[in-house]
Amino acid sequence: MATMADAANPPVLDQLQRPLKDLRISLTDRCQFRCNYCLPAEHVEVMRQHSQSEQQLSFTQITAVVKAFAQLGVNKIRLTGGEPLLRKNLSNLIRKIKSIKGIEEVALTTNAGLLNPVLADLVSAGLDRITISLDAMEADKFAQITGSQYPLNNILNSIEKCLATEIKQVKVNCVVQKGVNEDQIIPMLEHFRGTGVVVRFIEFMDVGNLNGWQAEQVYQSKQVLQMIAARWPFSPKPANHIGEVASRYVFDDGLGEFGLISSISEPFCQDCNRARLSTQGEIYTCLFANQGRSIKTLIDQPDELLTAISTIWQHRQDQYSAQRTSAKQNTLPKVEMFVIGG
Fold first, then answer.
1. Sign of the CA dihedral with 12 first, then 67, 289, and 220 last
2. How far is CA 11 from the centre of its chain?
């Protein structure tokens, strides 16, 4: 059984011949927002019961895990949460990860509520890309969705500040829920067109067990396209790489691009090359998994850690979204989004 992917060895493949290329690391399972599609306020006690800050991986442990993943072919790291900026001195972790051989890119997904004071440090440490969650352009609707009173203008200001840095790309992720915020699609594009920000519209997904997901709440990507087409002409754009989750489109007038992430209506399981590491050291091989596999006790044993991760990936056969109808018959609860990020 092959374990390492380097110049002499082929990449590690799962049961569906998908390589391991992308690792998403949850730095914390806590968040200061209460977004209704992730952790509704009425279920916050679930987060409090699950979260054990004393059990979360240290930056030294996370770095050791990344080194193992890099040996197996991972070249992209995304830091997420919960809200990753709740972890102090995050720039130190970014600097450590950037020094690992084989890691080409470090990205961050954040709600930006804590971004301004640390942005310069993150950029100095080598942060390559940033994705900011933003689901509305109206203050009242933003407050309704996030369950917070955090000023929307502060988020917009943070995005502008990101554009003025050396960060290679700034994205905005908008989860679209029918009857909630589909009316924000055009205003959001109007605001960001021509700025360099790439807005991505995400179908409301059945991640976890708390968000009350129903199929009729999904505003499908084809509906988003129809709405945008009525306002601006656009053309499809090729994917940057195999495994890219978003379908890309460029405005014909040259004022930027937008993307669609269509896990419900157009599953992309066949190209999924992402693993996820929870804050307490569990590996998840699917966003919709019902359990992870702990590698925490192996972190100080590099060879054993490498073998364990390789074995987990080689046995992987997840394709939940492609089998969603039959998968719904499975009564096992799925992991919550706040545990492993999006």
1. negative
2. 23
